[in-house]
């Protein structure tokens, strides 16, 4: 073990020295040719790999001021700018790239992917439509096209694209998992027999890519059987799906606990005194995934003075930039907590606003709806003291079950086991309690049950908290035509309903262990 550790340390030291040499060579080259875009991009990447996140931005911004007439280089530049949180400049580069005359289909598809990453879904859909018209015809690109159609509310068009995909590529699980979620499966239109036939034909080995496809097909079985009210068979399919996903994405409970403990133990600075610069302000929506955050986003963005920015990670990006900590999952957040007393929170707030205000589309407010920002409430409060924070609170059984029965892909590892989902919920609940105690009045709790049962009173209270008055459109979010890029995009285009209340009771027998643990957790917290 000692020899192994020494070898690892030697390798790290060797990599560090090599990167320092590469950086010195690049800087020397740029002294001679300061506008060489390829070298500027490489210098940024090298500084980033050395852990110098802030220092990785200037070379990219310089390169953007000397835009090459080379589409490949512009794409590489935009990718790096997005990773650095330089969103405004990345958009400007993409807009310039979009002016290229007669771009090839593959370039259009690449642009659409980057526009999607930025969260500009209308733009991405227009570009991907042009790419398909120009001849793009691969499974991945058509899948992206279908998702963009779905996000924009064009379910029939999305279905046609997905069915075309499956006719040509019958083992294309990505298309199938989106297709079954477009609408409720009914006896007259379900394809359960086809799905089970394909499942038997899929490779049964342990290769990760094969396991993931099998999980997607098992998920499609579950969704279909659940819609058809064949609950025993549905649960068995969900169990098989989640067993595959657990093996692919092990949940690190200890890492989650370390992050929660660090955030809850973070020293509280003096009350923030700075005011945000004039201009549109964000409204943050936080909570557990699948707690109703998308519905609240749709309600708020139906207001004449509010736009939806969707699920964006901009605050997380800018927090890492200002703290000068390269993103590294939980390890990165732990390092930020260690540096939290030295962070310039005014700079953080202004940088976030500078990179996101374009999302307001000329309105006074824009909704930043990212449930995971529940971890960052303390940072948001310090950086943007005038920004309202709304916390969706859903019944623990319903929210845990809703996560367990969702297929998030190779993220959200907690969601693929009942033990892990209840553990993750425990960390979330601990943080929510901590913010209420440490920062009283910072978050407005919005019970999901109240939102769907006492809608007008609840929405009025939410809008009042944000400094807005009730408009009738907020009570009818089903008329909101803006894109919805979340797993619940189909449901939130319906009128507000109560079907999500007590949904777990359909599987009360299977979920009894979860209910007992949550009850013990609630009693312990009380």
TrEMBL record:
Domain of life where this protein originates: Bacteria
Protein name: Sulfotransferase family protein
InterPro entries per the UniProt record, alphabetical: P-loop_NTPase (IPR027417), TPR-like_helical_dom_sf (IPR011990), TPST-like (IPR026634)
Organism: Rhodanobacter glycinis
Keyword Transferase carried by entry: yes
Lineage: Bacteria, Pseudomonadati, Pseudomonadota, Gammaproteobacteria, Lysobacterales
Pfam families named among the record's database cross-references: Sulfotransfer_3
Gene Ontology molecular function: any one: protein-tyrosine sulfotransferase activity
Transmembrane regions: none
Keywords: Transferase
